[in-house]
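Q: What structure does this chain adopt?
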Amino acid sequence: MPPELSADHGALLGWGAAELRPLPWRATRDPWAVLVSELMAQQTGVDRVVPKWHAFLDRWPDPSGCAAAELGEVLEVWAGLGYPRRARYLHLAAGRIVARHDGMVPDDLTALLALPGIGPYTARAVLAFAFERDIGVVDTNVGRVLARWSGRRLTPRAAQVAADGLVPPGAGWLWNQSLMELGARVCRPRSPRCGECPVAPGCAWRAAGQPGPDPALGSAGVSGPQARFVGSDREARGRLLRAVLAAPGGVPPGAVPAAAGLADDPERAAWIAASLVADGLAVAAPDGALVAP
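A:
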């Protein structure tokens, strides 16, 4: 990491204190609320997440309530966010939290990583944003900032070591939120606004004249562009899952292709249906109908 960066914590912290968007999960330190926000916000815009986050927590304000609900109920509240496997993981995690942690989200990295569907990013985000631990959090925005600051692509280990080493003692929450905000609004994937960056003097890529290729491309934590949604398997899965949740008796096998929007491709529709069953998002009834879990 450039020495200027580690020496200029104050500039980023000051910028973040003034510029952080007032997202509702930034106003709480409730670990369950933070965990829900992190799973919802993965690959999903915050404008779509905010109303769903409020609705979810109004329905299930703690892990015990979510664990006691049917998965189908959780999927119905989740509908519209995409990637429904995240809802299933959250439901499973709630059950594990109740069974092994007395209904309290654990404050230990190992215990968090042991929860279903919780990876290194989410576990560290809960520690930083709910428990205010001085631990680095590397999402796609932070990964991009770190790579550009260093002027090179980073391995997962190098990115995490850099992130952990940069956290100012006692300021883990604000530091990580500020880094994320910086990546989302200033150090953007295209056309970064370097003139607005509070720590531009420490950026090795900027100092070198921003030569290609961008070191953020392929660096740890930095996601690439999402595949086209229209016509994709994700779109068909979403259509079929919505139909399953809306039909009290499930979707009969003969109606699956049309429900998935694949009336002219029954083989692909059958594969989509099988994938929902394999992911635990639907159940194949004895008569072959797809029903809610």
